[in-house]
Design brief:
The complex is a heterodimer. Chain A is an alpha+beta fold. Chain A is built from four helices and five strands, in the order E-H-H-H-H-E-E-E-E. Chain A starts with 12 loop residues before the first strand and ends with a strand. In chain B, strands 1-3-4-5-2 form a five-stranded antiparallel sheet. The chains are: A alpha+beta, B alpha+beta. At the A-B interface, helix 1, helix 4 and strand 2 of A face helix 1, helix 3 and strand 2 of B.
């Protein structure tokens, strides 16, 4: 793959998870916590509705960084994120990021996943091997 | 109230996960990842993999079973009603491919109170059938109002 430079942008990823995405992700991941798949349960415990799995949103951040690295799944060596805001189905997620540093064959990329003004994945730092 | 910290340093019995093609495809489909190396054996082999390769974040699929006994351990005594998954890190080494048997061990790294919240940090180490490191996970679970 070609080299990355400081300031290069992660190809912007826009995804609107449909109503049943949390169910498919639950099946794929094995995480059937009812706050993700049961709207009534989620409301009963004080949430506005059922919420996205944080690790699904982190998966989208990984996907965007893999795209920056030319799609090779071996290129992503480390990904560290904070999950603070709640993500919801049927709202667009925008993943964006910038190459922060390049040293030798490793690039460090700052990435964010947001729904509107809410950062659902923040302070995401990816390390990519060039 | 002081946080119970008895579990710091504790390690739980490992779990083993058999990686399969259909599970990789199901995960990639849920994330909308369409790279053929996750679906097609010939494409994966042409790219240098033993078999269909998992996307990096498939690490949650093979490593989270090892986290369950840790989270539910009475020594950890976590209040689930007030718990959120606040942070996650993975570091990857050898790719996980269909046919791999991945063994994961979880341990508790720290339990600390900050700003009235409990921060529970666990690490998982995953190795494949050849003993090669596949991934290390750092899981930060935050409990409000401790």
């Amino acid at each position: 793959m070609s080299g990355l430079n400081v300031g290069d942008q992660v190809p912007e990823l826009r995804v609107t998870p449909d109503k049943y995405l949390p169910h498919r992700y639950a099946g794929a991941s094995g995480d059937f916590n009812p706050i993700h798949i049961d709207d009534e349960f989620a409301k009963a415990v004080g949430l506005p509705r059922n919420i996205l799995h944080g690790l699904y949103s982190m998966g989208l951040v990984a996907k965007a960084n893999a795209a920056l690295a030319g799609g090779d799944p071996r290129a992503l060596k480390r990904l560290s994120v904070q999950m603070r805001g709640m993500g919801f189905p049927e709202q667009e997620i925008v993943v964006s990021g910038t190459v922060k540093s390049v040293e030798g064959d490793r690039a460090v990329v700052d990435t964010v996943a947001a729904q509107g003004e809410t950062q659902i994945i923040k302070n995401a730092e990816a390390e990519i091997e060039l | 109230m002081a946080l119970k910290t008895d579990a710091v340093g504790k390690e739980w019995p490992s779990t083993t996960y058999q990686v399969g093609r259909e599970k990789i495809r199901e995960y990639a489909n849920a994330l909308g990842i369409d790279n053929p190396v996750h679906f097609d054996v010939a494409a994966a082999r042409a790219a240098g993999f033993r078999d269909v390769v998992a996307p990096p974040m498939f690490a949650v699929v093979y490593s989270s079973p090892a986290m369950a006994p840790a989270m539910f351990d009475p020594d950890v005594a976590m209040n689930f009603a007030a718990m959120v998954h606040g942070g996650q890190q993975f570091e990857w080494d050898e790719p996980a491919c269909s046919g791999d048997e991945i063994t994961t061990t979880a341990r508790c790294v720290s339990i600390e109170e900050k700003d009235g919240k409990g921060f529970y940090v666990f690490e998982t180490d995953s190795v494949n059938q050849d003993g090669a490191k596949v991934a290390r996970g750092t899981w930060t679970l935050i409990v409000r109002g401790v």
